[in-house]
Each structure stands twice: as structure tokens, then as C-alpha cells.
Write a structure and sequence with these properties.
The complex is a heterodimer of chains A (209) and B (493). Chain A is α+β, with helices and mostly antiparallel strands. Chain A has six helices and seven strands. The longest helix of chain A is centred in the first third of the chain and has 26 residues, at 7-32. A five-stranded antiparallel beta sheet of chain B has the order 2-1-7-6-3. Chain B has a five-stranded antiparallel beta sheet with strand order 9-8-12-11-10, sandwiched between helices. Chain B has a five-stranded mixed beta sheet with strand order 14-16-17-19-18, covered by helices on one side.
């Protein structure tokens, strides 16, 4: 299954997520008193297989993902992915830790979970607002994986083969630290069609297209 | 669906269920114990009414998100310390509860609500804090250490380096990390062997290696290594400490070079003094023997005036011979290489006075020496000569109107023995107190006292060699006192 977005649709989706992560950045800044910037420079909608191969190609190192399942009008898995090596730096920059421990502590894992939770919640809320429907989400979980198995490990609960993936690049910068990661929204066929309809509806309502 | 109360109350974490209007539906026993608020009292009340300090808090925002957007929130300790004012009581002590809080939407038969779950992570926070204190302490030691320090993995790759190590290598830390440790050294094989030995035997100490400084030149270091075993990831690392010996080694080399030069020049000087004195004395002997022959040949024909002239010439030659002999002796002080030994100062003084026997008798000199004198470290013949010269001087410069009285004294002066030789002689002018220790320095005209003006120069040289001091205090017309210090420790020369 292949879904092509025209330029206008892609712009709208990109903007949608930028609004979501914009809220997340504001929430962060308030929490950490650090200047936090989040941006989604590009959005692709690709097939599950394509997303898996893109991830494997783009990242050669172990990754860490924060995953939340969501259900409602849209059902699927949302995940934020960083290189595992850099994830700790994000936590330490966020809590301004000048004397970090040699190993990741339990408390730092929990903070990483919260960081993922803030970003994913903001994006889900943004989508919910756009669709005008409530999308409930599960608690976040941490997933460690090699890049080749990453997508399978993230989407273990979704069984449908005909899934598509909203594949977003995300740039994260906090107190001199810059980390690039990925935001993934894995949707079923029905959900993705509903999502695209909503996007097109939004474009129609605003008088473009 | 809400679990039966006995299960919820049995949980080792806090459970609060709120309805859509934020009123408490469930408040379990854990919460009651830590908030000092019974379930019956809490139920039906707005959470904000129970904890007014929550106004505008992240927790209320999270509750709102769960109720309205059906989104869950994780509140980590690092970003939200002590979300709720909860305390645990152990006897009389009250301790705040460190918390990890989760807020999640829930629905009970279509009625929306939310669940707040609180976990007590006080012990984890304490452990983390302690670990952090230890880390800060260790890191500070590492960063502040004067000695260069580094850690390498089993493969000899640098994992860490302190600022002192950066300076030693002339390479910034970022470039050092991940590079090969052994490649920094002129003998990389030896450096690799040091790491291998530390891994095999646990430690290796004081291995001398030369490290190539990035800015050019080698740094000589003494390296010690120890294995730090069983890290949490299972691998062991080798901890290395270097001591930069470059300055010391270079100073030692420079000193050795200078010592060699001084030894050579001293040997040349000794040879020169011997040759000169030997060769100078030969013509002097010729002059005085032929003058004696001339006097004998002339027999009774010689005038009294001529005999006197010849006498002056012979005396001059003899005097010059004595000067040469004294000079030779002066140059020999400390050159015989006689080792220092433990000596009785009393015996030294007795020997010096025995050598002066006739002089003392003829001058009718009265010499007093303390009954008890300490042991000293030194060279016997030199110390005998020192006191012999000082006493002889005291007699020689006696006042014309009174027989010489010489008093030797000794007292404990801490690290040294302070010896003094006091006389009642003519004294030394204040402006000559230092000059008397110079070569050929005489205070009186040659015809008034005998001597070559070398005696006190010899004394100073002997005292110098014994790492002591010599000086004189004097009053014209009343006498002089010569002071000599000799160190008590055996580390002389």
C-alpha cells in the first residue's frame, strides 16, 4: 500500500506536528528553565516495510524508543526514537546535570520516559484537536533495540500487516545539545485513511486546494 | 472498574482515583498513612481542596489532560521532585516521601475519571544522591590532581584523561579519548606491556617511559597502573597515574655533567699545584745551596755587611719555600679522600696541643680545654690541623706584656656544636675580621710574626669541607675569639 501526499497535504501535516512539538517545547522550557527547541523539519508517509528499511539505513547504532499506544478514532503506536548513546545526554542537559554518573540511573530512565511522554502527548493532542475527537493513550514504555528490529519491537501490539507509518524527523536542542531523532506514528489502514481524510478536510475548510 | 478496597489498600503504592470533577473517589490506606488524611475524610473532596499548594501545578495539569484529552502523564522525580506533600513516619522521625507519579485516564462504565498512582522512590533517590556525591568527589580528585591520570580499556584505548594528562601529552581531552594509549610513547611496546601487566597481575608500578609531547620534545614519566575490576558493564579498565620526572631527570643530567667538569678541573688544579710547587722548590733549593757555598768559599774574607746580605737572600729563599709548601698543603685539603669518621673532639685537641709542644712551652702559654667534649664527625688530620692552627695563632699574636692565655670552649647549639678558641692577645681590627681568612692575609709585618698568611685560610677550607662555619670576634688590645660550628649529623660531605 502506498500513500502519496501532495505538497499542500505534506505542508499541513508538517505544520500539524510542528504545532504539537511546539507545545512540547514550551512545556519543557517551563519544567527545566532551559531553552528547549523542537522542530519537525520533514514528514513522510511510508509503508511499514519502507519505514523499517529507512530506519535500519539511517541509524547504525542501538536506539532507544519511548512508545505509547493510542486508540479511538485512530488506533496505533506512537514512538519517539533516539540513538541510545545520546538519549542520556538529553536527560542530563534537561536536568542540568554537571556531574553525571557513569551509568544510567533508574531516575534518569524515568526522566527520559517523561520527556518522551511530553512530546508524544503533545503530538497526540494536536492530532485529536485536528480530528475533533479524543484519542486515548496508554502509559509510555521504554524500548531498546538494534535498528533492524526497531520497528517490530515498537509495534508489537499492532498485528495488521497493512500498516502505514507517519515518519517524522525531529530535531531536539537543549542547552547547547543537538540531537536528531524520529517520531513514528504507526497506523492501520482504516486509521490512516481517516487521518488523510481529516487532513484533506482541514485543507478544504481553510479554502485551499 | 475499581478494584475491591482490600486489594487497593494492600498495595505498596499510593492510589487516588478522581471523578470527572476532580473529586476523590478512592484514597487508599498508603495515601491515608502518608498524608495523615483518612479515606473517609478525603472522599468526595476536590484534590485542590485537600492540597491547596497544588494550585497551578503540573499535577493538576496532568489530571486535566487525563480527564479531558484521555492522555496519561509520567512525572519523574528529576523534573518534579515531591509532587505531593507526603511524609512517612518511622517512630518519632518524619521523612518526606520522594515520589514517582503517574496520572492516567480511566473510565468506569462510561464515566470518565483519572487514576493517580504514587510510588515511594525515597531509597532510590538516596542511593542516587550518594552515588552522585561519590562521583563528584572522585571526579574532583581526578580533575584537580597534579599528577597526570588516565583510564584505558582492555584494548589499550583511552577512556578518560584528566587535565594534567592533557598538559603532559599536549593533546586536548577530546582528541585523547578513543585514541591508543601506547601510541603516545616513544617505546609503544613497553607502554602496551604495562597495560597488559596491570590486567594480568592487578597492578604495575613505577615503569619509566618517555612520552612524545604533541608540541615536540619528550616527557620522561614514571607510570603506575592498576586494574579497576568488575564495573557494572562487566569490563575492567586500567587506571594509570603518571609522574612527570622530566625536570628532575634533566636537572640530574645537568648536575652530573657539571660535576664531571668540576672533578676534571679539580684534578687539573691539583696536578698543576703539585707540578708548580715541585718545580718551584727545585730552583729555590739551588739558590740557597749556592748562596751557602759562596759564603763558605769567601771564608773570613767576607765583610759583615756581605754576610748579612747573603743571610737575607737565604732567608728569602727559605721563606718562599715555606710559602710554597703551605700553599701545596692548602690545595690538598679534602683531596686525600680520607673518609669521615666518628671522632673524639678531646683526642683531636690533645693531638693538636702535642704537635704544638715546644711553642706552648716557649711562649709560657696557658691553655684550658673543657673536661668533657663531644664526639664529632670528620677527618682526623684536618680537624687536628684546624685546632692546631687556631691555638698556634692565639699564641703567635700574644700581647707583649702578658703570657698568652687560650681558652677552648664547646656548647650544644641545636643541630651543631659551637666551638670557640679565645685568647688574650693583641686583637684584630674590626675592618679585618673577614679578611683574616683570606689567602696570604697577615695583620702584622713579616718581621713581627712568623708565618705565611695561609693558616686561617686553611682553617676556613677545613670548616667549609665539614659543612660548618668559622668567624671571629675581637677587641683590640683584649683578644680575639674564633668560633667554629660543626654539624652534629653524620651527613657531612
Amino acid at each position: 500500500m502506498k500513500i502519496d501526499l501532495n505538497e499542500m497535504e505534506r505542508d499541513v501535516v508538517t505544520e500539524l506536528f510542528n504545532i504539537g512539538v511546539g507545545h512540547a517545547a514550551a512545556a519543557f522550557g517551563q519544567l527545566t528553565r532551559e531553552k528547549v527547541q523542537l522542530a519537525v523539519p520533514r514528514v513522510d508517509i511510508v509503508s511499514y516495510a519502507e519505514a523499517a528499511s529507512q530506519l535500519a539505513e539511517a541509524t547504525g547504532e542501538p536506539m532507544i524508543g519511548i512508545r505509547q499506544d493510542f486508540e479511538g478514532p485512530l488506533t496505533g503506536v506512537a514512538a519517539l526514537i533516539f540513538p541510545e548513546r545520546r538519549s542520556l545526554e538529553i536527560v542530563r542537559a534537561a536536568i542540568d546535570d554537571r556531574f553525571p554518573l557513569d551509568d544510567v540511573s533508574e531516575l534518569e530512565r524515568e526522566t527520559l520516559l517523561e520527556i518522551g511522554n511530553i512530546i508524544l502527548n503533545s503530538c497526540l493532542a494536536s492530532i485529536s484537536d485536528m480530528l475533533g475527537m479524543t484519542t486515548a493513550a496508554s502509559l509510555p514504555h521504554l524500548v531498546h533495540s538494534a535498528p533492524t528490529d526497531l520497528l517490530d519491537n515498537l509495534s508489537a501490539r499492532s498485528t495488521s500487516i497493512d500498516r502505514i507509518v507517519l515518519f517524522l524527523h525531529i530535531d531536539f536542542s537543549v542547552s547547547r545539545l543537538n540531537v536528531s531523532g524520529y517520531l513514528l506514528f504507526i497506523l492501520g489502514v482504516e486509521g490512516s485513511a481517516r487521518f488523510l481524510d481529516a487532513v484533506r478536510g482541514l485543507i478544504d475548510r481553510s479554502g485551499h486546494g | 472498574m475499581i478494584l475491591p478496597a482490600n486489594i487497593i489498600d494492600g498495595l505498596d503504592s499510593g492510589v487516588v482515583v478522581l471523578d470527572a470533577t476532580r473529586r476523590v473517589v478512592v484514597w487508599n490506606a498508603w495515601m491515608a498513612a502518608r498524608s495523615s488524611l483518612a479515606a473517609e475524610t478525603a472522599r468526595g473532596r476536590d484534590l485542590l481542596e485537600i492540597f491547596p499548594e497544588l494550585a497551578g501545578s503540573h499535577l493538576l495539569a496532568a489530571v486535566d489532560r487525563a480527564l479531558r484529552h484521555r492522555l496519561p502523564t509520567v512525572m519523574s522525580h528529576n523534573l518534579h521532585p515531591r509532587v505531593l506533600p507526603l511524609f512517612s513516619r518511622h517512630g518519632a522521625s518524619i521523612e518526606p516521601v520522594e515520589q514517582s507519579v503517574v496520572v492516567r485516564p480511566m473510565s468506569d462504565g462510561g464515566v470518565a475519571g483519572c487514576l493517580i498512582q504514587i510510588t515511594d522512590i525515597t531509597s532510590a533517590v538516596k542511593r542516587d544522591r550518594h552515588l552522585r556525591d561519590v562521583t563528584v568527589y572522585n571526579r574532583t580528585l581526578f580533575e584537580m590532581a597534579v599528577d597526570p591520570m588516565a583510564t584505558v580499556d582492555r584494548g589499550g584505548i583511552l577512556l578518560d584523561a584528566n587535565p594534567a594528562f592533557e598538559v603532559l601529552a599536549g593533546i586536548p581531552r577530546q582528541s585523547l579519548l578513543g585514541s591508543r594509549f601506547d601510541a603516545l610513547f616513544t617505546k609503544s611496546v613497553d607502554a602496551g606491556r604495562l597495560v597488559a601487566r596491570a590486567l594480568a597481575e592487578g597492578r604495575a608500578t613505577d615503569v619509566l617511559l618517555s612520552l612524545r609531547h604533541a608540541g615536540g620534545g619528550d616527557r620522561h614519566v614514571s607510570l603506575s597502573a592498576a586494574t579497576v575490576p568488575a564495573r557494572s558493564d562487566g569490563g575492567s579498565v586500567v587506571f594509570l597515574v603518571a609522574r612527570d620526572l622530566t625536570e628532575r631527570i634533566e636537572a640530574e643530567r645537568e648536575l652530573a655533567k657539571k660535576t664531571r667538569i668540576i672533578e676534571r678541573s679539580n684534578a687539573e688544579l691539583a696536578q698543576f699545584a703539585y707540578v708548580v710547587s715541585h718545580d718551584l722548590r727545585q730552583p729555590l733549593r739551588t739558590i740557597s745551596s749556592f748562596l751557602t757555598l759562596i759564603e763558605r768559599r769567601l771564608g773570613s774574607d767576607i765583610t759583615e755587611e756581605l754576610r748579612e746580605f747573603i743571610g737575607f737572600a737565604v732567608d728569602g729563599a727559605k721563606r718562599m719555600d715555606r710559602l710554597i709548601v703551605d700553599l701545596l698543603n692548602y690545595s690538598r685539603i679534602g683531596r686525600q679522600g680520607a673518609p669521615f669518621e666518628e671522632l673524639e673532639l678531646g683526642g683531636i685537641l690533645a693531638e693538636a696541643m702535642a704537635n704544638l709542644g715546644m711553642i706552648i712551652v716557649e711562649a709560657r702559654a696557658e691553655i684550658t680545654v673543657p673536661e668533657h667534649l663531644p664526639m664529632v664527625q670528620g677527618c682526623r688530620t684536618e680537624l687536628v690541623r684546624l685546632f692546631q692552627n687556631l691555638i698556634a695563632n692565639a699564641i703567635k699574636y700574644a700581647a707583649a706584656d702578658r703570657p698568652p692565655q687560650v681558652e677552648v670552649a664547646c656548647r650544644d647549639d641545636g643541630d651543631t656544636w659551637l666551638l670557640s678558641v679565645r685568647d688574650n692577645g693583641i686583637g684584630i681590627p674590626a675592618d679585618s675580621l673577614e679578611r683574616v681568612f683570606g689567602l696570604f692575609q697577615r695583620l702584622s709585618a713579616p718581621d713581627q710574626t712568623e708565618g705565611t698568611g695561609i693558616g686561617l685560610a686553611v682553617c676556613r677550607k677545613i670548616v667549609d669541607r665539614h659543612r660548618g662555619r668559622i668567624w671571629v670576634e675581637s677587641e683590640i688590645g683584649s683578644g680575639s675569639t674564633f668560633f667554629v660550628t660543626l654539624p652534629k649529623d653524620g651527613l657531612i660531605d
